[in-house]
Amino acid sequence: MKFGKFVVKNRIPILIVSLLLLIPSFLGMAKTRVNYDMLTYLPKDMETVKGQDILLEDFGKGAFSLIVVEDMNQKEVTELAQKLRKVEHVDTVLWFDEIADDIPVEMLPDKIYEAFNSDNSTMMAVFFDSSTSADVTMDAIREIRRVCESKCYVSGMSALVTDLKDMCEKEEPVYVGMAVLFAVIAMVIFLDGWLVPFVFLASIGVAIIINLGTNYFLGEISYITKALSAVLQLAVTMDYSIFLWNSYNEECKTVSDKKEAMATAIKKTLTSVIGSSVTTIAGFIALVFMSFTLGADLGIVMAKGVLIGVIGCVTLLPALILCLDKPLQKTRHKALLPRMDKVSNFIVKYFPAFLVIFAALVVPALAGYRNTNAEVYYDMGQCLPETMDVVIANHKVSDNYGIASTHILLVDVDVPEKTKREMIKEMEKVDGVSNILGLESLVGSKISVDILPDSVKEKVESGRYEMMLINSEYTVASDAVNEQVGAINEILKKYDEGGMLIGEAPCMKDMIETTDRDFRVVNIVSIAAIFVIIALVEKSITLPFILISVIEFAIFINLGIPHYLGQSLPFIAPICISTIQLGATVDYAILMTTRYKSERNFGKTKKEAVSVALSTSIPSIIVSGMGLFAATFGVAIYSNIDIIQSMCMLMARGAVISMLSVILILPALLMVCDGLVRKTTLGMKGCN
Description:
Elements: H1 2-9, H2 11-31, E1 33-35, H3 47-59, E2 64-70, H4 74-85, E3 90-94, H5 96-102, H6 110-116, E4 121-128, H7 135-148, E5 152-154, H8 157-190, H9 196-214, E6 220-222, H10 223-254, H11 258-285, H12 294-313, H13 316-323, H14 325-330, H15 341-349, H16 351-374, H17 389-401, E7 405-412, H18 417-427, E8 433-437, H19 454-460, E9 465-472, H20 479-495, E10 500-503, H21 504-538, H22 542-564, H23 572-601, H24 606-638, H25 642-664, H26 666-679
Parallel strand pairs: 1-6
Antiparallel strand pairs: 2-4, 2-5, 3-4, 7-9, 7-10, 8-9
Helix pairs in contact: 1-11, 2-9, 2-13, 7-8, 8-9, 8-10, 8-24, 9-10, 9-12, 9-13, 10-11, 10-12, 10-24, 11-12, 11-21, 11-23, 15-24, 16-22, 16-26, 18-20, 21-22, 21-23, 22-23, 22-25, 22-26, 23-24, 23-25, 24-25, 24-26
């Protein structure tokens, strides 16, 4: 109560401080770098990650792109290559004529010419002196496209990251706008005032901006986090605002002093939302346990957002409501949601039917859930529209040269030339390997690389390693390329134990193996953490099992649907959504269960207690569920980036499925398990 009185007394200073905090928050937002490269979230101790660092340190080469030039003669291609070399941060441009300038053409094997030329096109390999997703690399990609105009196609991870960034920056303002619009519509429909939604949005908006501003201290955030955090924070913290508003209006009926009513409402809100927010925060914090650190990126930002949202709900929002109390009260209207007594009585009366539905859906839901997890895709190129420049370029490289991915081989320079030739010969026999380009490839099998000029050697040799390119017919993240990478690595280690195979496909293979483990870890951690929190909040051993089983059932249905619809999800979606849905919607179950316990302790029968708990909880659950649905559904419909679209659609659908599961299934389980719950819940043993 002291805290509530403090907030009420200092409402004007709170408003002023909140507005002042927006200044550094906007500056922090502007200075927070956004990372668009998923591979940078791999653990730093992996060989593929270390190899990328060695490539940059020893060779001065980081990012790599294959560029296809069509319908240009040799002179035009030569002039273009010279222009590309002048682009800032372009380190090396390799193509057939470049090599032929240093080595007599008659010495070059035919496969070298074929590797860089097709019927109507020429291919160049371009290395940058900066990393794949560095801002300067993306600037260089844009400059290359400007220099080439419409005559060339730039493929590779850096081009993908560039196009992804440009699309995200274009779409993100629309994401927020649509989330706000649909959230306002939902609140106007389900709340009891025309002005209330806008006051809520003002309070939540300030909390969102502060959260995004404090990301500056993290150094950078992923584009997924940036795209989703504002939408998620709006949806998840809306509940707390609704609870404060309802509590305040209830207190005003019994207390004439508005300030005293608000102080009491703040106290009640704090008591209520602490348990609710802790479960949500625990769900997000579970993502921190992923070794693929994108989880920590999203988890920390969202957990921080929920905490800031709670603080805003019990400080800024009460100040706004008190300052705008007169217009808020004048614009109130009758709630559109009717009383739910008949609905709750029907559900409780026919609860065995809902148990049958529950039992009938468990097996297919679980089967779909497991199959969906096995059918995810990892190739980030799949998350972009087919009309994107990089997607078109990747198709050109594949169609004209049979190259779907390129690996980089780092071999110790002290490995004898003969041994390297034997290794290359064995690697060329691996399924799907188009060709291998290295010093040994530039001369015939009977000619030593020692005759090659230093100008050629220095392009692919450092003091420690020789670099080779392995072109593959298989696409990144496919089962075929993963098997190929495994086979090449096995051969490499046989000839050079310290050698490294790096590039997009080897990194993706590591990512697949890493996230498989992460999925299990995050699920276990999130369920265990929320189980403990519910057990402490409800003082029960059995209630956590019941509540989590209901939400997990909803998660199984939600994540199982893509399998039955023949849809493939981006790999990160099932990992994050299972945790987000559990943390964000278990509140619905806690709300109903807490009321059920209270009614049971007042001496009501189990049927009466469940019915009252259900009828009083349904409006809050519907408002909360539809709020989350509204904030995410519009983004899911609009976004052209599949990873954003998929995650928002899963969150929107998950909110509705969790809402229906709690309303229909949880009462049936409470009816069946009432005796067991009373025996295993502290303070309920004396109930009849």
